[in-house]
Amino acid sequence: MKFLDTAIIHVIAGNGGDGNTSFRREKYIPKGGPDGGDGGNGGNIWLKSEMNLNTLIDFRFKKIFRAQNGNKGSNKNKSGKKGNDIIIHVPIGTKIIDNNTNEIIQDMVKNQELILVAKGGWHGLGNTRFKSSKNRTPITHTKGKKGENRTLKLELILIAHVGTLGLPNSGKSTLVKSISSARTKIGNYPFTTLIPVLGTVNIDHTKKFIIADLPGLIQGSSQGVGLGYKFLKHLERCHLLLHIIDLSQINKETVLFYINTIINELTKYNKTVLQKPRWLIFNKIDLLNKIEIEKKIKLFFLKLNKKEPYFLMSAKEKIGTNKIKKSIYKFLNYQKLISS
Predict the structure, then answer these.
(1) Mean local confidence (pLDDT), 4-10
(2) Is residue 5 within 8 Å of 37, Cβ to Cβ?
């Protein structure tokens, strides 16, 4: 399935049905009393969040949603039939935004949330409603009101407990695939991950969390270079970020440059994302000896002047990956960010 995380749609609620003017016809009574019925209300348009959806691709071609109009009232005081409602299904994590005012109508972060986005028009009144002691044969009825008509922007921000970031080919996809159910694409070339991929990490049958594999960042991503900038917003809901670093690069300075590249891009993009808890995950340790690893790690933390948690692993060989996923769950559980 293709991935789409923004869409513009137009929703048009149904118009209310007109009221009716009619009179009873009875034998020997040339003109009976009024019996015109009310019209039916126009159909509403709702948005509903669904757990089994993870893209807005359905809105690429279908952009206009029109609910049914209410029927006109009829004689014998019969009301017109109400127009049928429309329910539009969207993924959890979809923000509903009024495209004209930029007002956030709803941020749908729970499963099966239902929100009214366009209300159907109110029904018109039949002439029976206007009968009085002074006017026993009213001919007046009212027309139904028009339904709401608005343009909405849908913006999907995936909901994951943990998000990965790093340069292309740093090992993000391999890690996510090795510890979760995600079917990420792995290859020895840049940008093997072209869209965000979610995976469930199971600690046991009751303990689990969601991890997101995002396309790699490169220098200038926050300004639109490469692919990662399109998906940086999906880090906004994550509680923990895993910064994956290829430790096997030619020299210490190269690796240090790569680390700072990611930090700089996060700084330029969004301070909220930058301030999230971020663990350094040094990957591909199977390609280095113990002395090389220790020297590089020591230099990194001297120059970075940070005390962030860090882990050593080989995602390909699954060295250290079990410790990482258990540590993640412990962190999330301790912070009460996940149900235990």
Answers:
(1) 91
(2) no
